[in-house]
Write a structure and sequence with these properties.
140 residues, mainly alpha
Length: 140
């Protein structure tokens, strides 16, 4: 406080004392307003700094989370593929034990049937040509 109690005692006039008290109260009021403004200013700066720091942390954690999700997805896909292969192998063995032919068995059988069909056609043509030549009467 710029005014001291000594100054108040020396004041002759009641109006001077009131004016001094009023000035002192006003200075205290102004100091409070200044402190409030400073706190508000620092508060905004602090708030903005916290927001920036939060954004940085969010970006780092987002990256880590995305990496973890991608890794989990890859592991899951690999595991799913292995599980699918195990299932297919078991089904194939079971069908084989029951005597159900495989795709390869059916393809081999189809190829064999095709070969036999060609052989039958050739034999049929041969038999027809042989029968035709034996049926021709000789005119002598």
């Amino acid at each position: 406080m710029p005014k001291k109690l000594k100054d108040i005692k020396e004041a002759q006039n009641e109006n001077q004392v009131i004016k001094m008290v009023r000035d002192s109260a006003h200075q205290i009021w102004l100091a409070g307003l200044g402190a409030f403004a400073k706190a508000q200013e620092k508060g905004n700066e602090t708030f903005e700094a916290l927001v920036k720091e939060g954004e940085a942390v969010e970006a780092r954690t987002k990256k880590v989370t995305e990496d973890n999700i991608e890794e989990a997805k890859n592991k899951t896909t690999g595991t799913w593929d292995k599980l699918e292969q195990v299932f297919e192998d078991r089904v194939s063995r079971t069908l084989n034990q029951l005597g159900v032919p495989t795709r390869n068995d059916i393809q081999e059988l189809a190829s064999r049937v095709e070969e036999l069909s060609k052989s039958v056609k050739e034999l049929t043509k041969f038999n027809e040509s042989t029968a035709a030549s034996t049926e021709k009467p000789s005119s002598t």
